[in-house]
Fold this sequence. Notes:
Layout lengths: L7 H22 L7 H20 L7 H26 L21
Helix pairs in contact: 1-2
Amino acid sequence: xxxxxxxxxxxxxxxxxxxxxxGVTTVVGFYDxxxxxxxxxxxxxxxxxxxVVLFFMHLRYSSALPRLVMLGGLFWLALLIGLTLVxxxxxxxxxxxxxxxxxxxxxxxx
Length: 110
C-alpha cells in the first residue's frame, strides 16, 4: 500500500491554525452576538473539525472508500438533525396549557 508522506511543516501549520481558531473561539465567547453566537461558534468548530479530519486523519490523501464513509456519516448526522428540527418546529408550544395551573376564576370561594 502506498502512503503519502506529509511534510512536518504542514502539521505545524495546521496545529498553529487550530490554536488560533481556538483563541478566536475563546475571544468570541466573551462577546454577545445575539442570535449569531451559535452560528459563529459552529462555523469555527466546523473549520477546526475539517482541518483535523483532512490532515491529522489523512482523509485528504486517502482513497475513495474512507471519503465515502465520511460522507455517509455526515449525511446520517444531517438526516438525524433535520428530523429532530422538523419534529421540534412542528410542535405547538402553549405557554400556559389549561389544567396545569388553576386560575383565580376557577377557585371556589366560601
